[in-house]
Amino acid sequence: MAFHLLQHDRHAALQIARALEHAVSSIKHCDLCNTLTEQDICRTCSNAQRDRSKLCVVETPADQAALERTLAYRGLYFVLMGKLSPLDGIGPHDIGLQKLFDRVVPKDDAGLLMPVESREVQEVILATNFTAEGEATAHVISQALKSRGVQVTRLARGVPVGSELEYVDLGTIAHALVDRR
Amino acid sequence: MAFHLLQHDRHAALQIARALEHAVSSIKHCDLCNTLTEQDICRTCSNAQRDRSKLCVVETPADQAALERTLAYRGLYFVLMGKLSPLDGIGPHDIGLQKLFDRVVPKDDAGLLMPVESREVQEVILATNFTAEGEATAHVISQALKSRGVQVTRLARGVPVGSELEYVDLGTIAHALVDRR
Ligand SMILES: [Zn+2]
Ligand SMILES: [Zn+2]
């Protein structure tokens, strides 16, 4: 791509350089949900139509986009911008966990944790990936929030819509069996 | 395959013919679970170690095998040997529905339906495929059994173990959201 730009389209190369420069200087994290945005508060968080009592925790903006496409969710999001991964040296401080906790269980003017009934967020829905690292991240968040009286739920694990059991992996079937409704 | 046998291995052809003949004359349906077997009652149904209060309904022996591989289920099975498919002209009489109903809600000596507490099967787990036809089949069975006081559950629908939300289809994510736990 670099060779193509230098050989055939130096004007486009300059445009890309400037767009990147602009992005680096103007894009920051949303104060509320931690996603990338040019505003202080992103468009989703400032949308008055959304249900502010629900907060869905995802790993990346791409995961948030996947949930948005379903049109099945009208609450808000918190984007971790990563996941816990001890093997790669990524711990709670490297992703937005403290920011998430402060968001869900804010302190009042006296510096004390707000009681459940005066909090805006009434349910935290964990939508981290169903990989080992995503599950570990969900577990850590769940433990921390439950101990502060927050209602925490997790996306259902199970057999994907449209699929035949014969071709579904063992772990998924086992979970679908345990979580039968 | 036929050409190969006739040209190079007429002995094997004869063996296949005899095996097929034997199968046709000796393989029948298990009296209890409807699967294919050479006995009156198949090996699974006659296994005294299994939990006889749970009955898992599957479409085919291959689906039963998939569930068995998980080692997560110790109950018994009922194999429909098909699924409802009105477009193909396959109705309730073409699959083992009546046999299933008689199995779950048997009649007593006086010809009356047994009351819940004297029935062997206490829970029916619907494990038909998560396709349109499998869902329709599950729906019909569920309606019929619930109206006779049977506890009916369905394998959980949701996000498969090990997968990343970004690559999961919309319908599955929407279900996982609705069925969050
Ligand atoms: Zn935001
Ligand atoms: Zn049997």
Automatic annotation (TrEMBL), chains A, B:
It holds the Pfam family Toprim_4. Keywords: DNA damage, DNA recombination, DNA repair, Metal-binding, Zinc, Zinc-finger. InterPro entries: DNA_Rcmb_RecR, Rcmb_RecR, Rcmb_RecR_Znf, TOPRIM_dom, TOPRIM_RecR. Residues 53-160 form the Toprim domain. SUPFAM superfamilies: Recombination protein RecR. The keyword Disulfide bond does not apply. SMART domains: TOPRIM. GO terms for biological process: DNA recombination; DNA repair. May play a role in DNA repair. It seems to be involved in an RecBC-independent recombinational process of DNA repair. It may act with RecF and RecO. Belongs to the RecR family. This is Recombination protein RecR. The gene is recR.
